[in-house]
Amino acid sequence: MEEKPFKAMAKSLSPHDSSKSGSKGDIRNLWTRATLSQPRLNIQLTDVYEDLDPEDSSEDWKAGQWYKQPSSDGGAWEGWSERTAEAGTRQEELDAYTSEELERSPQRGDVEGLEDFGSKMDFDASVSSVNIMKHTHHRAYWREQQNRMPLPLLELMENEVLEILTKALRTYQSEIGRDHFLTKQLQRYIEGLRKRRNRRLHVSAH
Amino acid sequence: MKLKTGSFLWCLYLDKLYCLLSVRNVRALVEYFRLLDAHRSHTLNDVLFYHFLHHVTNWTRKQIMNVFNMLDWEAVGEIGFDQFYMLVCIVLAHENHLEEQFIFRHSRPVFELLDLDGEMRLGAESFQKYDFLFNIKKHDLREFYRDFDITGDCHLNYKEFKLFTISTMDKYQEKQKEENENEEKSLLSESTA
Description:
The complex is a heterodimer of chains A (206) and B (193).
Chain A: H1 5-12, H2 18-35, H3 45-49, H4 70-76, H5 78-104, H6 110-147, H7 151-175, H8 181-205
Helix pairs in contact in A: 1-4, 2-5, 2-6, 7-8
Chain B: H1 8-11, H2 23-36, E1 44-45, H3 46-56, H4 61-71, E2 78-79, H5 81-95, H6 99-105, H7 107-114, H8 124-129, H9 131-134, H10 138-148, H11 158-192
Helix pairs in contact in B: 3-4, 6-11, 10-11
Region (Disordered) (chain B): 174-193
Domain EF-hand (chain B): 136-171
Organism (chain B): Pipistrellus kuhlii
């Protein structure tokens, strides 16, 4: 296409997109603080976009694969680079805090000053580790929320796909036979999809 | 062509300026394609493709298979997501009467789709075969051949095709302008009455 679909995605995925930044600004702050103490700040794209739906344990399809397109990386991850920039800002704030503390205590003995400073750092570290634990629990939740489709739309899609595939199965059975591996594969897939749908309906009913 | 009311595609919409799907719509379409991909091959074969289009449109078998052959530009017998996305944009453009805008905005890909034999030229038969898709009227095409077939070979190369899309876009915009003016006049006359 003259304007490829993923380029359109790149255009739309602006960090200044008001519909996203307004509701997710707090969450992004939580995410940045949550990753500060972790040794690996550079998380893979596919890690963030992996499907966390516990019902889909048999799937190896990752929606994130579509986001591996080179033209989409820059656009899709403008927001991510913004978050890592905020992580850097937070680190700078901590550094500024430590330098302020060192300036404030010039009259104390070096050891005392260091001890006080050390205890304050320990306190900060413990507070931040508690926060990190809280945020780590929530992180999976928010990741899942970002990946999820709205339930009514998902139901509509699943019902429609089931109808289409059921008709396709009849064609497979008449054209290539019931014993063909493709027919069996399609049959298993349809049964899996039906079970998932029924489970979801059962959960939403209760 | 009519999209089935209440179907998933019926819920999607094109950006009217660029004639492309929004990010949200693409995200939903990716999910939909993933559900249809029963064999986990990241593609749809001809049977799945046929049943999908048969379910959501009122196209005949012949039309559906023509579309499949057009999109299967690598001749592998399967359609990937790129081609699927293209198809959905074309279908939505047709459904929302944005064909002229779509062809104008995406003249290169449309030209390459219609150029089935790879000769970089389009004959009248290409347009006739896919007139149900792009709503290219015979009358407009005849006029165009008369006015813009610079090479005189009754085939359109890309530049001539581009001129054709510009000319149909101009006509479409003039028609829109006229319709708006008529609407305003009728509103004014109603209000004065």
